[in-house]
């Protein structure tokens, strides 16, 4: 079986982080995001993947290469114009030869893909959608199912009084080649709005597998930070954990410095009396003395001055944070930003 990863979006909800780096390769605990999906697929015996690209494709290809670094085979298909989720899948048709697993390119999860594929085949489904449960269903489009697992109907962001279930589309599908026949060539087409409802209307066997595993959409700064907290605090242990360990060695650490539940890249230098908790610090960062970094993500080449405080923020590549500067919860800095000495960002 082959996989298709839909990684063509512009990542607008993650801006400014995605202005120069596509969302599929933003770092999660210092590891490019798509590594997590590729390792999960490999763990379940899926060693050949087509990555559908659109936005800054060359940057994604340069990071992932041909897949040999993690023992998989990668192909790339680039959209000339946005094709939507189903259209992008159709665009990979020449490389497909049977049942296919499709991933949205911004989903971090630990689903049991082997069990999901077994579920799909046992029911002779033409399409199986993986669902996950959420606490606040009103923020999502919902998927109603029957007792036998068949999908009953789709509810697009219902009002509170219309909510009948708590299961949402998790962005992972098992699809038979018949689905490709329903998708027009070269047109923008959506699984969620067009193809799946059409399958239901034609009484095709469309099933839902409700997963109990970890799931998060990393598409906003808040969810991006939450994914880090979940990993660093041990609430979620991804299959690519070995890569995290490789990125977790400190090169130089000053006296009386404490590091808790954090990933620090090997080339980082850390001053004295620094406190780093539940944070990720990327390559070539320089952390001054008596700095406090809490539940934050620092990308590459960042300089943090003495006595600075960072809490609940994301800092892009090559930023400079001045002495005694304070960055508070919710702050997101794009690449090459400079915060002056004693500067306060994000305080009400």
Describe the structure.
The chain has 348 residues and is of the alpha/beta class. 19% of the residues lie in helices and 29% in strands. The protein is built from 7 helices and 30 strands. The strands form 7 sheets. Strands 5-4-1-6-11-8-12 form a 7-stranded mixed sheet, with helices on both faces. Strands 14-17-20-23-26-29 form a 6-stranded parallel sheet, with no helix packed on it. A hairpin with a 5-residue loop joins strand 9 and strand 10 (151-155). It is elongated.
Please state the CA-atom Rg, rounded to the nearest Å.
Answer: 22 Å
Largest sheet, in brief, is: 7 strands, mixed
* Envelope shape: elongated
- What would you call the structural class? alpha/beta
Low-confidence stretches: none
**DSSP, total strands:** 30
Count of helical segments? 7
Arrangement of strands in the largest sheet: 5-4-1-6-11-8-12
Assembly classification: single chain
CA(first)-CA(last) distance: 52 Å
Q: Estimate the helix proportion, in percent.
A: 10-25%
Mean pLDDT, to the nearest integer, reads 90
| SS strand fraction | 25-35%
Structural descriptors:
alpha/beta; seven-stranded mixed β-sheet; six-stranded parallel β-sheet
Q: Layout of helices and strands, plus pairs?
A:
Elements: E1 2-7, E2 27-28, E3 31-32, H1 33-43, E4 48-53, H2 57-64, E5 73-78, H3 84-91, E6 100-104, E7 107-109, H4 113-122, E8 127-133, E9 142-145, E10 151-155, E11 167-175, H5 191-201, E12 206-210, E13 215-217, H6 221-232, H7 241-246, E14 252-253, E15 258-260, E16 263-264, E17 269-270, E18 275-277, E19 280-281, E20 286-287, E21 292-294, E22 297-298, E23 303-304, E24 309-311, E25 314-315, E26 320-321, E27 326-327, E28 332-333, E29 338-339, E30 344-345
Parallel strand pairs: 1-4, 1-6, 4-5, 8-12, 14-17, 15-18, 16-19, 17-20, 18-21, 19-22, 20-23, 21-24, 22-25, 23-26, 24-27, 25-28, 26-29, 27-30
Antiparallel strand pairs: 2-3, 6-11, 7-13, 8-11, 9-10
């Amino acid at each position: 079986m082959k996989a298709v990863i839909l990684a063509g979006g512009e990542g607008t909800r993650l801006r400014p982080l995605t202005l120069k780096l596509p969302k599929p390769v933003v770092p999660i605990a210092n590891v490019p995001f798509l590594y997590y999906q590729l390792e999960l697929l490999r763990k379940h015996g899926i060693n050949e993947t087509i990555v559908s690209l659109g936005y800054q494709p060359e940057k994604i290809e340069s990071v992932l290469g041909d897949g040999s670094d993690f023992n998989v085979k990668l192909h790339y298909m680039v959209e000339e114009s946005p094709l939507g989720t189903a259209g992008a899948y159709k665009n990979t048709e020449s490389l497909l030869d049977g049942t296919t697993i499709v991933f949205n390119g911004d989903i971090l999860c630990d689903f049991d893909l082997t069990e999901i594929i077994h579920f799909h085949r046992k029911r002779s489904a033409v399409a199986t959608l993986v669902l996950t449960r959420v606490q606040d269903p009103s923020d999502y489009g919902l998927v109603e199912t029957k007792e036998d697992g068949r999908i009953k109907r789709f509810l697009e962001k219902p009002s509170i009084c219309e909510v009948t279930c708590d299961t949402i589309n998790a962005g992972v599908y098992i699809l038979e080649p018949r689905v490709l026949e329903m998708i027009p060539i070269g047109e923008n087409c959506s699984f969620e709005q067009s193809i799946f409802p059409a399958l239901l209307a034609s009484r095709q066997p469309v099933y839902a597998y409700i997963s109990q595993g970890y799931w998060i959409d990393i598409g906003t700064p808040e969810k991006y930070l939450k994914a880090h907290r979940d990993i660093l605090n041990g609430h979620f242990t991804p299959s690519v954990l070995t890569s995290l360990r490789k990125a977790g060695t400190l090169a130089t650490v000053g006296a009386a410095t404490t590091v808790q539940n954090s990933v620090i890249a090997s080339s980082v230098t850390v001053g004295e009396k620094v406190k780093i908790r539940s944070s990720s610090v990327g390559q070539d960062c320089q952390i001054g003395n008596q700095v406090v970094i809490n539940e934050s993500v620092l990308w590459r080449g960042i300089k943090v001055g003495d006595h600075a405080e960072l809490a609940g923020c994301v800092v892009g590549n090559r930023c400079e944070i001045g002495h005694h500067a304070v960055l508070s919860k919710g702050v997101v800095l794009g690449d090459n930003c400079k915060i002056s000495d004693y500067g306060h960002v994000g305080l009400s």
